Amino acid sequence: MKLLPQIQVEGGAEWLARTATQCLIDEARLSPKPGLVDSRGNGAHHDLTLALMERSAHSLTPTFQALAQQSWQRPADIALRQTIGRLGRVGEQQMMAATGGVNTHRGAIWALGLLVSAVAMRGGDASASVIAATAATLAKLPDAAAPKIFSKGLRATHRYRVPGAREEAQQAFPHILQLALPQLRLSRNNGGSESHARIDALMAIMTSLTDTCVLSRAGMEGLEAMQHGARAVLTAGGSATPEGQQALHLLDRQMLALNASPGGAADLLAATLFLDRIGTPYFKH
Ligand SMILES: CC(C)(COP(=O)(O)OP(=O)(O)OC[C@H]1O[C@@H](n2cnc3c(N)ncnc32)[C@H](O[C@H]2O[C@H](COP(=O)(O)OP(=O)(O)OP(=O)(O)O)[C@@H](O)[C@H]2O)[C@@H]1O)[C@@H](O)C(=O)NCCC(=O)NCCS
Ligand SMILES: Nc1ncnc2[nH]cnc12
Predict the structure, then answer these.
(1) Could you give the residue ranges of the DSSP H alpha helices within the chain?
(2) ipTM
């Protein structure tokens, strides 16, 4: 394996961390997102604002940088799994300190943290599918130091017998690779604006994700409304068309009425934007 000078590792890690943070900010600002915080307002949330989401994103840059530095050209083994588990939990604490105890990005730290590590493990240069597969290998390794907490996500996955954030990563992010990235590129090719393409990518994720945030807040009724509504937007031709915009508006109203917020889908959109940017590798700039 080619070893890189330390300065190149530092530069690569810094670029990855800045890019991951920017993807979180791009996701938060993107509008209109049904039930979610966006540039219009707080969606279905009482304790979240766009300013808080942005503060949270910035608080995570050092965590992403440390993850990249520690993972650079390392193999997926128990030692690395434990290191990234520890860094991820420190990141969660930093997020909570920055937001005054509000959970803004727990799922995003998990997904983007694994993907940042995976890019670094590959020395900064690999395709989206190789990065996702590398992240999956890490996610499948046990982390003995993880506290045994029965989280909201675990409760929802057990109650409804569905996969959650853990399984999405362990299966190499199928909602990103098979749905969101292809939709992002299709909508761009169809001539829609970048914002429309990103909303369409979010819709593609929402057609099928078993989002444990939605399940915890609005049960199976909320999840089905999310999946059907997102499918209606894409079937109508996507968010760039008048019919698609109408379907999106209806979905927004339904999500608010049900108090449902697809936070997991939002995290995966940020991760999609990250993998889309990684398609142009750092070392080739
Ligand atoms: C593996 C973990 C992610 C832990 O997962 P688990 O399911 O056990 O725990 P949760 O605390 O519930 O976090 C899961 C978060 O993942 C997002 N998510 C949900 N469904 C999916 C899905 N199907 N696929 C992918 N991602 C999904 C979601 O995150 C977003 O929602 C958060 C807000 O949720 P919540 O607190 O429930 O907020 P509200 O509904 O607003 O609460 P109330 O107002 O009602 O009170 C927000 O953070 C978004 O990001 C889920 O919440 C992982 O955390 C873990 O094990 N970490 C350990 C450290 C580690 O090993 N790290 C390594 C990499 S750095
Ligand atoms: N835009 C957003 N609104 C609410 N929860 C989120 N989790 C991640 N992004 C989010």
Answers:
(1) 6-29, 50-59, 61-71, 78-99, 106-121, 128-140, 152-160, 165-170, 174, 181-189, 194-206, 212-235, 242-257, 263-278
(2) 0.97
